[in-house]
Structure formats: C-alpha cells, structure tokens
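ZP: hey, is the pyridoxal-5'-phosphate complex queued? I don't see it on the tracker
AM: it wasn't, my bad. submitting now with these inputs:
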Amino acid sequence: MNDAHDPLSALLGKRIYTPGPVKMSARTLALGQVQTPYFRNRPFSELVLACETWLLALANAPAGSRVVFLTASGTAAMEAVVMQLLSPDAPVAVINGGTFGQRFVDLCRLHGLAVQDIGVDRDPLSDGHWQAQVQGAQALLVNGHETSVGHVYDLEATGQFCAKQDMLHVVDAISLFVTDRVDMQAQQIDALILSSHKGLALPPGLAMVVLAPRALARVRPAGVSYLDFAAHLRDGARGQTPFTPAVSVFVQLYDRLQGLMAQGKAQVWQETARLAAHFRQGLEGLPMHPYARCMPNAMTAVQVAPHLSALELVQRLEQEHGCVVAPNGGALAEQVFRVSHMGDMQVEDLAFLLQAIRAVVEDGV
Ligand SMILES: *Cc1c(COP(=O)(O)O)cnc(C)c1O
C-alpha cells in the first residue's frame, strides 16, 4: 500500500485542537508505550483504589461517594446513569441546549422514560424562568458544558433547584473536568459523568461516574448488563471491575491524577483560563468572534463572519497547516467551528493556530 492510500499517514502527525481527543502530555504518551499489564492482582487493585480516592478529591465529592469505572466512551456513562439511577415511574427533566442535551433526551426516551425537554439556546439558567417547565420530575439531567456550542450553565443554580425539589442533580461534566470548576458539594451534584479523553487528556476508553450517597441509594439491584452499577460498585470496593477494563488507560489515569493532586486543581483551571483568554484575544483582529455568551475555559466555539465558510476554513486549516479543529454539524456547520484548550495545550500551540487562521483568511476562504 503506498503512502497516499495509507490512512495512518493521513491521520498522524497533526496538531490537534479538537474537544476530544486532546493534546496529551509527554508523560502520558510515554506510558502508552508500555506492555499492558495483568490486572487481577493486588497492585492493580491498589492503582484503581488510588484513582477513585483522587477523583473523589478533585470533584470535591461528599463523604460516602463512590466511583464507577466503565470501559467505554462518555455516552455509555450517560446511558448507564439513565438505566441504573432513573425509574420509569416519574418523568425526567433534561436541559437541552445542543447535541449532547438532545442525546440525554434520546437515551431517556429509548429507556422508556417520560422527558420534560427544556430547550434552551445559550441560556445560563442563572435566573429561574426555566424552572416552571419542570414538574414532578425525579431528576434533572444537564451537560455542564454543552460542547456542541461551547456554552456553560450555572450549576450552582441547577443544583439549588434540584435540592429544593428533592430531585437528583445529574451533571455530565465530561468537557469541564479538570479545566473548569466542578465541585459536587458546592453545586449539589448527585451523579457526575466524566471520561478519559477530554480534560483528563488521556486516550478514549474510560468513562467514570461519581455517585454521591443520594445517587448510590437509587442504584438498581445487580443484573447482567455490561453497564451494571451494582456489580461495578461491589467489585470496585476491592479495586476491581467486573469485566476487563481499559488497563492501559487506567495506568495513564493513575499517573495523570497523581500529577493533578500534586499541582492542585485551581492551578489547572487558571492555566486553562489563561490559554482561553489568549486565544479569544487573538481572535479580535480576525473576522470572527466567540459564539457562546458563557464560555468554559475548556473550549471556544468560534462564529465566522457571514461572508466566510467555517467548513472550508476547517478543511483548509488541516490540509494547508496540519491543524485539526472541530467542525460543527447541522445548521451551524457553515458558521461555527470549535477550538479546544484542554490537555497539554501551550500558548505556542494556540499562536500557531491563530497564525494559520490568519493565513487562510487573508488568502480568501
Ligand atoms: C464528548 C462528550 C460526551 C461523550 O461523547 P463520546 O463520543 O461518547 O465520548 C458527552 N457529553 C459531552 C458534553 C461531551 O463533550
């Protein structure tokens, strides 16, 4: 097979600015080169238990919380929460501000739940006007950062509302953790959904659900599902998983969390905030601007001026400059593209991208 037809040569060697996977550190990459170890033994159990302890600390989970580790992408953790914590007896409210909100709606319906679909467009939710649409729901499901449009919600506000209504507060923080503030106690989060290949900057393969005591009390009895929380919690008590986990990603997770614990999470937020500010400042001289009103540190969704094509810009950034940014789908495809600030991103990486954008725009796109 010659190089022109080799998918590897087309895939590798690019600069990556997508909201998952994200740029990984040299340490994480080096750990990706080791032989996958055997795992039904004491050292691996100790590694898993340490990962659980550190994740609970980084999320500021309340006492008695546990972590379920699933070998899957984040969507499986979203579906597992729907299957394992929610009951068909009462409706579920979903904040639906884009692709990921819609995914929660679809998963709930698939599993026979009645959905109160709260459609929003870049609404911070800080004032209570959306709350009238929630009636007698058992849970509120919200993607803390709706990654399809780069918008963040006020999780203090949604948490306070859930606590008052005695509803479960389920938060998909996949593209907030660890670049933005996530605090299960302050934000009164009962179930927190995470995955390995966003802010944690590891390869895809692990999804995690942090369950606070209020969520643990709702876990269904053990069945036979791959996503069964009860079985994961039972085996997790001794640092094991019911089925073969993504062992190599666990090894990288251990190293990454150890580093985050040493560095301090506030430090990581601040560093990512600085990168995001640098990028947004760099946009100022260009015919484009941020799309969302409330932006996370993790990512910037960029809206181009009406005479430009975002899709063409995305294609030319890759073809001519080796920079992979994320296109948008649907109605926003021609207007919006997305740039991640997660992972081992440096100011130079963003400067390179800004220069590439400038070159494509000046050349005419
Ligand atoms: C990336 C992401 C997911 C998970 O998507 P997968 O393709 O399953 O990894 C879920 N929710 C949000 C908000 C995300 O950004």
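AM: back. The longest strand covers residues 66-71.
ZP: great, adding it to the tracker
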